[in-house]
Amino acid sequence: MNCTSSGNVPGYNASNFVALSLRIGRPAIVVTVNFRLGAFGFMASDDILKDNQRTGDKGVGNYALHDQYMAMLWVKKYICGFGGDAERITAIGQSSGASNAVIASRELDHQQHVYDKFLEHLGISANMPPNQRLEMLRSIKQEDLVAAYVCLGSPLPNWQATVDGVVVEALPNCDGLANQVYAPSIKRVMAGFCEQEGALWSGRIKPQQWTVPKIIDRMAAYCDPRETYDILGKYAITDEDRDNELVPKLSDFCGGVEFRQPIYELVNNWKQGDAYLYRMRFVNQFDGMFSGKAHHGVDLLFFFQTYNHLLPKEYTAAAEEMGKHFVEFLNGISPWAPFTEMNNVMNYGPDHVGSQSLEASLYGQCQPLNGCKDWFNKCTSVSRAIRNEIVYTRGGE
């Protein structure tokens, strides 16, 4: 992820996944990649841009993407030494690791505001010359830089890829995915979402003490009344809802806008071969704040096979089936019918593993209102307002 060392989490050890691939006779080689995180991977500002230019570097703020790119070059060059095929490489990512350059990007104006706020928190004066500001920033201890995330309402959504005109040429969004151009070497794609992605933000939404009238009033800044009531209707938000009912519904809306919608648009508009969609509905069986939820990233508990010995028997079987599906995809085999066939989606849970057409309610949530321009941008603005997150643009927020 953008801020946590997910690559070092023991649960992401790929050895069990590789063992599964060997067991079913379709061996896979897995190379896990660590890249720079947080400020080290994504910080961008005019100071850093000019400093980069002085040293002959192009662009700014996308150091994590540079690391990922270099890792892919390394795999391409050396994987044959491990028995791999340099012409059959599959990139797998989760959360920001999968979306940095596709969806989760920010304009440099936003990154500059984040940078200014970061320096202020660290006691670095904005009145200093740029080279002195950078010199002081480089002298800050690593642990103090990490601790400074708190000043950003951290860690999301501030540390993201930057539209610098070099690595990321334009700010992408769902409305433009229909015209997105991909490298011709990419033949197929698989993408998925978890049932309760929005639980990630429940802790930010609850303190806002939203009521339906307050929501409607806030949405008026972005949507006309027809658009407002279309969104509320799609997520079954009514005047009768109280706080304990609104928080999960608003969380679901945010999860739909930030995760489900982009993933749907990706597979729905994919033109380079087959596209596969999955939906994780099995819940986290372990104690903790997300226990009993199909939360963001819970699919990784299944994919890596690491916790199979701790899961209930039916969950272990589901994890192995999911692992087999991914192994088949890596080997060029169709693990289930692609999305282009009747909006087909593979459901992992809540009771069993099986494919079916995308539910009408979810399909409806993913459809823009007829006649509405900038539908996704409007929904995204509402989602960020509900979470009380600020994204800066030229001339203000």
Keywords:
single chain, 397 residues, alpha/beta, Rossmann fold, two-stranded parallel ribbon, AB_hydrolase_fold
Description:
- This is Carboxylesterase type B domain-containing protein.
- Residues 27-102, 111-329 form the Carboxylesterase type B domain.
- Pfam families: COesterase.
- Helix 12 (243-268) packs antiparallel against helix 16 (375-386).
- The protein is globular, with a radius of gyration of 22 Å.
- Strand 5 (344-348) and strand 6 (353-357) form a beta hairpin.
- It is built from 16 helices and 6 strands.
- The longest helix has 26 residues, at 243-268.
- Mean pLDDT is 86; it is low at 393-397.
- The protein has a 4-stranded mixed beta sheet with strand order 3-4-5-6, sandwiched between helices.
- By secondary structure, the protein is of the alpha/beta class.
- It has 2 domains: 1-172, 3-Layer(aba) Sandwich (Rossmann fold); 175-389, Rossmann fold (3-Layer(aba) Sandwich).
Question: Total helix count?
Answer: 16
* Sheet of most strands: 4 strands, mixed
Alpha-carbon distance between the two ends = 25 Å
Spans of 5+ residues with little confidence (pLDDT < 50)?
A: 393-397
Q: What is the level 1 CATH name of the largest domain? A: Alpha Beta
CATH architecture of the largest domain: 3-Layer(aba) Sandwich
The CATH homologous superfamily of the largest domain is termed Alpha/Beta hydrolase fold, catalytic domain
Average of the residue pLDDT scores: 86
| Beta-strand segment tally | 6
Residues in helices, as a percent range: 40-55%
- Give the overall form: globular
Radius of gyration: 22 Å
List the strand order in the largest sheet.
3-4-5-6
Along the chain, the helix and strand elements come as HHHHHEHHHEEHHHHEHHEEHH
Instruction: Give the tally of structural domains.
Output: 2
Domain Carboxylesterase type B: 27-102, 111-329
InterPro entries: AB_hydrolase_fold, CarbesteraseB, Type-B_Carboxylest/Lipase
Organism: Clonostachys byssicola
Protein name: Carboxylesterase type B domain-containing protein
